[in-house]
Model the fold of this input.
Amino acid sequence: MQLRVTSLPGDGIGPEVISQAICVLEEVASGFGHDLELDEKEIGGAALAKFGNPLPEATTQACLASQAVLLGAVGNPAFDHNPRELRPEAGLLRLRQELRAFANLRPAVFYPMLAGCSPLREEIIRGTDILIVRELLGGLYFGEPRSLEIDHGDGHAVNTMRYTEPEIERVARVAFELARSRRKRVLSIDKSNVLECSRLWREVVTRVGRDFSDVLLSHMYVDSAAMSLVLKPAEFDVILTENMFGDILSDEAGGIVGSLGLLASASIGGPVGLYEPVHGSAPDIAGQGIANPLGAILSVALMLRHTFNLAKEAECVEAGVTSTLMGGFRTRDLARPGERTVSTEQMGAQIAEFVSLAARANDRAAS
Ligand code: IPM
Ligand code: MN
Done:
């Protein structure tokens, strides 16, 4: 099979983790007999520095011409004082729009061998397997009008939370469909006791839920959900929520399972899927070779599954991650006091090697 992928390393630790994710993807391609065509482009601060634009036209075109996009991270404090359109983040937000990727899937799974990483007691965290489905193209992130005036004590700012029924319905359908291949439960999170957008959200999700009578739908307010997540994370299955709530709750989920560095994401729904780790650019540790590449590598697994429909290959990458953690390999964010740590590259190489061995074994079994 032909795999046409655009890679966008971006800023901070993005390039380091993406280079490991690509090593793993290359092993998958050669091991399972796929033809990988990779194109690398700029986004975020890296693109701003080079072209004065966080999403150059050449990047958009390359992404739209490929089947999937693998992104590292965007964000660089050097551009913090730029106007909004000239911040690194604007590049990512525009790319999500260009790719029409309205459903953002963020799995948060507890690994038993990482029990010591979670701030929660093992009996609470055990069995946690959450899939956050975050609406990605609406709400406060994109609503108009928006404005900012800073005026010596007299300034004001406006953001608009706006949702339409079709926007809610399409992402709800994604969540219900995905719940069918899991424990068949969807928890929709809103703030319908206060916000009109959430009233509409609850109304539409309830209506869509009637088409999925095999899936159990429940609702929770976001404040209460934020607390329940730390009190009983194992009780959650699929979480369906709007853009900003999903942004916040997914970082919380990362903390719960032990490190934000573990979390991968898939942004789907449009013609081209966008795959990125959840952790962000982490400028404080960039360039030191200590970043955790697992979020990026697990994003490759999501790409194999969701864009290319290659379940066996996706499972192989995930098994590589589990096996590497079982083998005691820990980047700094995962290491307990006294545990030996490995570099970003060593962690990636370990998983790439697992994939190459597993692919060969698979080959022998087939012949
Ligand atoms: C994320 C990030 C982005 C977001 C930023 C970098 C624009 O925090 O993917 O969670 O807020 O969506
Ligand atoms: Mn975020």
